[in-house]
């Protein structure tokens, strides 16, 4: 394992196109002299103790395709000259101490597929330009201090993972996200969201995980979510959702995790929910639900956790036939 500063003499290796010094104990700044590495395409300095700002010289390396600077102690802002990196495919800057705004010039990185900026101190708005990157597959800006509205996506047909949690957005979920037909994960936890869950989300037939928990969402759970045939995890807990749990959720044969606790849901748990063969966790506590546990519960062989306390169930004797391994509260 290497320690100490990155040798500035590396700048003399002008034919270098691949540099991986990840998972070491390197300290100090990234050398400004790296601007001589004009053939460099892959730079991995992940998981060290590097500090200081990302040098401007790095944004002059126009051949760069993959940059991994995550899990360091880097500070300063992201340069507006990031737009010079027109060949950039992956940029990992998460878990640092970066501040300032996300540059609008990022839109010039027209080949960008993976952008990870989470776990920093970034402020301002999430630029609309990011949502216009047709090549973008992964966008992770969680755990920052971003504000303003979440922009309606433009041409993000390739977007698969959108992680926006732990920010301070205003307004609701843009219905246009339903046009991101490749979306697999949408995670926007604890981000001050208001309004309703768009019924258009029923178009997301590739969606595996929907996590909008710990917000201020209101209205009913859209029955159209029953069309999200790939959905495995539905987490909407700690909101202000009301009405009944849609029967249509029982059509989701791959659903493993339903977490709707701490809302204002009412009515009975639909019988269709008890017939989801893959169900492992059913957490519905702290609502206004009524009814009884049906006999169908014994068919849920994968079920490990049922939590229904603080509701208005009748005749709940908890003689749960054959469910001794499950945790029931």
UniProtKB/TrEMBL annotation:
Pfam families, sorted: LRR_1, LRR_8
Membrane topology, as annotated: Single-pass type I membrane protein
InterPro entries found in the cross-reference section: Leu-rich_rpt, Leu-rich_rpt_typical-subtyp, LRR_dom_sf, RLP29
Tree of life domain: Eukaryota
Keyword field: Cell membrane, Glycoprotein, Leucine-rich repeat, Membrane, Repeat, Signal, Transmembrane, Transmembrane helix
Primary localization: membrane
GO cellular component entries: plasma membrane
SMART domains in the cross-refs: LRR_TYP (SM00369)
Similarity comment: family membership: Belongs to the RLP family.
Protein name per UniProt: Uncharacterized protein
Source organism: Hibiscus syriacus (Rose of Sharon)
């Amino acid at each position: 394992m290497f320690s100490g500063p990155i040798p500035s003499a590396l700048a003399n290796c002008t034919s270098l196109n691949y540099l991986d010094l990840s998972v070491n104990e390197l300290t100090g700044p990234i050398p400004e002299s790296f601007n001589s590495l004009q053939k460099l395409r892959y730079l991995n300095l992940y998981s060290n103790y590097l500090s200081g700002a990302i040098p401007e010289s790095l944004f002059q390396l126009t051949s760069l395709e993959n940059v991994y600077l995550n899990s360091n102690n880097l500070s300063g802002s992201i340069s507006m000259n990031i737009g010079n990196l027109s060949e950039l495919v992956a940029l990992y800057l998460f878990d640092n101490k970066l501040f300032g705004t996300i540059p609008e010039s990022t839109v010039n990185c027209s080949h960008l597929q993976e952008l990870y900026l989470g776990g920093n101190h970034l402020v301002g708005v999430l630029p609309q330009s990011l949502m216009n990157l047709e090549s973008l597959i992964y966008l992770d800006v969680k755990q920052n201090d971003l504000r303003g509205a979440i922009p309606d996506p433009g041409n993000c047909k390739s977007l698969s993972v959108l992680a926006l949690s732990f920010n301070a957005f205003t307004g609701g979920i843009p219905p246009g996200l339903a046009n991101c037909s490749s979306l697999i994960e949408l995670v926007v936890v604890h981000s001050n969201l208001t309004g309703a869950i768009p019924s258009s989300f029923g178009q997301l037939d590739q969606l595996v995980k929907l996590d909008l928990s710990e917000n201020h969402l209101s209205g009913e759970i859209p029955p159209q979510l029953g069309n999200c045939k790939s959905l495995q995890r539905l987490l909407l807990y700690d909101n202000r959702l009301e009405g009944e749990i849609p029967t249509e959720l029982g059509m989701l044969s791959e659903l493993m995790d339903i977490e709707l606790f701490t809302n204002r849901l009412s009515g009975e748990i639909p019988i269709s929910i008890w017939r989801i063969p893959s169900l492992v966790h059913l957490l519905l506590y702290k609502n206004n639900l009524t009814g009884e546990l049906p006999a169908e519960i014994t068919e849920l062989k994968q079920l490990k956790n049922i939590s229904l306390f603080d509701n208005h169930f009748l005749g709940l004797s908890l003689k749960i036939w054959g469910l001794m391994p499950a945790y029931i509260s």
